[in-house]
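Final report, Chapter 2: Outcomes

The project's central promise was a pipeline that accepts a single protein chain and returns its three-dimensional structure in a standardized token representation, suitable for archiving and comparison. That pipeline is now operational. To close this chapter, we reproduce one record exactly as it appears in the project archive, with the input sequence first and the structure output second.
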Amino acid sequence: MPSRLKATLLALTLAAGLSACKKSEPAGVLVIAPPDAAEITERTLQAAQGYLETLSGSAPVVVRLDPNDEGGVEAVARERRAGLVLVLEAERYAASGIDEARLTALGEDGFVLETRDVGDWENGLGDAGATLVTTAGNSTLADQYAVYEFLRRLGARFYHPEEEFVPTHEPSALRQLARTPTLLHRGDSGDYTPDFTRRSWSFHGAHPLEHLEAFSDGDHPIDEAVHVNDWIVKNRGDRFKGAGRGVSSEESRARRVAELDALRVLLGFPTGSGITLHNQQQGASAVVDPSSEIPPKQQIETYVAERLAENTEGISFGIHFGPTEVTVTPDQETVDWINWAGQAALALRPDIAVEVNNHISGGQATPNFDDLGCPPGTNDEGRGDYYDLAFHSDPRFGITVHTVMFYPLEGPARVYNQQTFAHKLCLMEKASAAGRPLTYFPEGSWWLSFDNPVPVYLPLYIGARVRDIELVRPLLATRGGGTLEGHHMFNSGQEWGYWQQDYAVGLLAWNADLSLTSVLGELLDPLCAPSAWQQCAARDKAIAVMTALIEHQRSMFLERSDFRGRPGGLYLYFAGEDPADELAALAGFEFRPVPVGLDEVAGGFDQATIDQLRATDLAALAEAAALHEGWLAELTALRDEVPPLGRPWLDEIVDGVEINLLRARHARSLYAVAAGLREAALAGGDPLTATQADWDAAEQALAAAEQVVRRREEGYRYPPAQTHGGGLTPETAVDNGTTYGFRVHTKTHLLTYWHNRHQEVHALRTGEAPLDADAVALTPALAAPETPLAITWPSGADVSGQLMVGALSATPPTAELDLTGESYWPVTGELTVDGASVALVGGVARASIRAGSDAGALTLVEPDSTLAQQVLQTIFPAIDWGLLPDGVVMAVDADDDGVAPYTALVHADATVEGAAFTSAAFDTKLPIALDGAERTLAMQGVVLAGTIAGDQLTSPVTMSGQLVLADLVDALIELAGFDEAGALMTLSGILGFDPAAPPEAVAFTAEIAITPG
């Protein structure tokens, strides 16, 4: 049955039912719509009925009025004795005064929402006459915007796709509320137009968001996906959230894709297509195959033609370039590929908008393209960053300028290997002056280890996005100042108050003049009772607290320097740490800084550095805790003033402030323990006694944090399996279609970013370590001849078994073995420790000729790659070297604590001829320090070579061999969320191989600087 016919029959059915009502009975709220209203109007009407029933306390009366009826809207209002009348598709009624010319002037998304009072009859709201509310839009979306804006006037707040705030007002208040515009409105007329002509949110599909099943699986209820897109409409977005990743069958996915596209068409969203030239990260794939016999230009043009043929209604064509966030492609080739793609699209569809992504990664200077007068601060040669190549493409192409995290377009931003995002604003200003279309693409969360999964409550995001709007406002095309048209918000999870920044930018993208105070006011409207709508003390007090909190975070997290002199470095104590963060640094990219290591504080700081740490960072954390304690008390005291309907919204803020308080206390206490351990070591004191008070404080903070997390989980809007299901190990992981086996708040649930630090400090404080071969310490593993070998057995444990050092044996509690002469002794054995079996494997050596090399003392000779040099230099550990008459040993000190364990000592046969030595080829797994976990770098066919001067090794030692690729690929998959193709693409850029035909291993040669002794 045609949808219009179904709508008509529905209208007639409703009209027939309503005719049974007594016309003499006064109506409170009346809704008027044409009998042949569009299907989307019927859907919007149905939604409005539900909202109006809650807002007014009684069901509205619906009347179908023929636009040709001579009596018109006012006559129906009089006949029904209505007090408030909502008119849908008002442009079809002559008396509305809304004609085609007026709507056309409003643009695609503009709408009319105006009121006028008529009549003097006694109405159902308890006063005289009626307030007529006419709504009309210039598009399907605009029609919906108008109705939802009317509902916002009455107090509806569409905060979250699964939870909204809809109060119930006294009938006598409704007409004045309907007459009173919200903060979106500008001017005196009823015309509404947006400042940004494109407004959207990403709901980033590469992350395991709560609702991904609804967007991918036809057997899963579609409701959550519908709610997301309804939320976009209610917040005046104009880009649809379509199908995403999942694990359903192809048939099931196809059904959901079709269902979602039908919804998109119904809601009136446009569509588009695009091309991914290089992407190999987070499970993405590229279009161009460089190894194909078909030239890249032909591949690109063919693909563009196919996409446009498939989607003839598309209004935009996006171009994504860049293989990963840490690797690049040749700059001139990249610009050529971008131009080929965009120009092919324009040749076929001159009306289509071509949009090129402009990511944020820095430090990748382009040799053939300058910085256009906007120096990024990442090089001194006037070169641009790789992703800024978008600004060198065809000037007809629009550019989507992406920034990350809570950093605004000014000031320090030491993330993604940048120093600041100010150069992005400069590029936008220059591009705008040249007439290039622009979209701004900031973030409301980063997820991963940075913000909401910790969790940290960050209304700073709201403040930063308000500031960004202030900075880019002069570029708005709608105001005649430039070519800025779009605002696209990256979002990844909305719990813990992260919906607030998404909601805030919905307001700002429509009205760019809004202040932070006005935005906070709307977010805090639920704190007022309906009788005191937007005029209550609780709301005012909460605005003051939120304003102070945002200012505190702006100062502490953006500007204030840590003890190492890094602006914004204090936030690192609040964020978490993932292996991927360190891995990114290894690849030469500081995606986001990590704090000073707790082991570094406990094991290497001198007293002056400890004093500086206490006076700066630890004092700042104590200050932050004290401020949060005060704000928590203020907000908690408001609860009795807030009506029951508003308390859940206050509670979410309270939980956020409390979790910040506990994060500050926990971090301060753990670092104080680490500092206390070092001070005890320096002074010869008792480390446990010296650190007991701080350790107790850390324990209390951790326990309290778990209580807050459990309390907040009760308020989550999605089922637990969708918010914190899956797990972090292969045994607990659950495939969800992304590269992550867990969900957006799994680490929140597990308190991963709390326990990792806590357990590290516990181990530092007690000396306890996981039960493995290192449960027995044999020291020193490498030393001068005749140096005894000290044996330390697991303390406080039931230990039995035998340890073999060459032909020598030892059983507990033997404390020492005498090693005679220069030699290498393999270590073997098996112990039983508290009933658990522990295998012992390693070696020790005594040598007259010894040397040492510091961590990172490696210079790569082959391959000739700066990036490979950075990676290998960063992970290369400290090593103690020994040359024997017939062999060479290297004892690896992966954690750089001055002690190389016997489990990391490698021996190889060697020949000494004159002043030179060369080892036999050997295979090994080189222990490396990465994210605090035990990791190794497999190497094959390793040969060591060097020279001797007298009784000393001379620098450098040459190491050659092959790096086993599988270990590196596995590390990228495990630590950084890559899939295999993306890992290979990334490594190919670092190590110089063909990702389409990767070798088993990659040859390398390196020189290692050593110091004799």
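Archive annotation: The two ends are 90 Å apart (CA to CA).
This record, like all others produced under the grant, will remain available to the consortium after the project formally closes.
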